Amino acid sequence: MAASNVDENYFSKSIDNNDRTEWVPLTLTLVEYPKGDLIGKCLALISLAPFGIGSGFIALILFRRDLHTITFFLGTLCSEALNYCLKHTICEARPLRRDDIFIEYGMPSSHAQFVWFFATYVIYFVFIRLHHMNNNTIIENLSKFLIISSSLIMAILVCISRIYLEYHTFWQVLCGAVVGILFATFWFALTYLVFTPLFPQVVTWKISEILLLRDTTLIPNVLWFEYTNTRQEVRARSRKL
User: Fold this and answer.
1) Phosphatidic acid phosphatase type 2/haloperoxidase domain: which residues (predicted)?
2) Residue 66 — φ and ψ, nearest 5°?
3) I want to staple 94 with a disulfide (CB 3.0 to 4.6 A). Which of 102, 110, 147, 195 is the partner?
């Protein structure tokens, strides 16, 4: 009997302690949608696109080590830092007041700013930096169209998802999109005019050699260059064997 009373007291105290513990969700990845709403579920999945893009950046940086990809990724980080500063300066609440979920400010939308920064930068990159993707002009133009259109569609759908799921108001999303476009314009100009001319010098640094960093600015078609060089190397090694 004494042992059972001790156990009951222990569990009752544990429950009381758990009740007093304040649990805070990680709103960065938490996305809710109305139960049974298929459109809401699809938009909730689409709103996670920034995390897919971030994972892609990390994979590209680890396996390609290209300086332009690194500066692009640094631009997204600076954009997020700018968004944090703007949110904590404006201090505008999200449209729904649910203290257990919406613990962050909503103006401007970080998702909208992220995707429009990415889409705008990609558009500049395709029109200004990306040349001679393929020897066939039709295929090259089609590839550029698909890259630009998919980036824009993704950005639009993410913005719609944030409004539809009531995480942000229309004006919070619009402000985030405008800030993302403007910052992408600034960052691409900074990269193109300031950073890119320094890349040839950066790759000569000892740390760049250790990290295998490379500059592919002067190579018109990186994929074709890597494909042909890999094929030639494989053939040469096959002959030796």
Assistant:
1) 67-188
2) -85, 135
3) 102
